[in-house]
Amino acid sequence: MAENFKLPGSSYEELVKIIKAYSTGKIGTPMALDAVAQATGMDKTVVSRNNAFLVQMGFISEGNKKAPTQEGMDLGRAYSLKMDEQVVRIWTQKVESDEFLSRMLSAVRIRNGMEKTSLVNHILYSSGSSTNNNTRAGANTIIEILKSANLVLESEGKIIANDNGTPPVSITEESILNEPSKTAVVAPIYTSTNSKGIVINLNVNLDITFEQIDEASEKIKLLIESLKE
Prior knowledge:
Distance between the termini: 70 Å
Number of strands: 5
Order of helices and strands: HHHHHHEHHEEHEEH
Largest sheet: 3 strands, antiparallel
Structural class: alpha+beta
Radius of gyration: 29 Å
Strand order of the largest sheet: 1-3-2
Helix content: 40-55%
Shape: elongated
């Protein structure tokens, strides 16, 4: 079902320029549209049609004059300083936290990849946007955002999920220290030779903590005695 998601109004490159321009301001301090446009070297109408998306993402504040947020400042500076890891981290968090962007990524995964034109049309339809040059550029920008987060790859006109690019779940030092140390033990518990000279060996694989070794030994002894009876 289509929803009202505000797409960017221009290319990814132009969106990046606007984000960088807003990051030259101060957090919470409104910036005039003319000032942002001048910093980007673009017409103010280009800036204006991207503002709704940036508000939606939490990079600038609402109101007649937009002010950069902390997240907007972080992303703009990351772009300016070419801190690619930071750019990936910020966009990945946005995709994970935004229902629409998450659904677009899921659509690619469920279909085992999509032709780029099909994905553009899917984004346009799902967002509830009318189809024109600006919204089509915005749909392409959404794809570039997914690519910039290393969540999808483009190959021969097809967009595929980059599951290998998903950051691994972090393991804190505390969780490692609190995890019981385990050891794998292969215990030979029974050896027998029958009347035909065939040797029978019985081993048990144990995955236990060091604290459980003594208890396991007692149980193995009881098992051996029962086998000898």
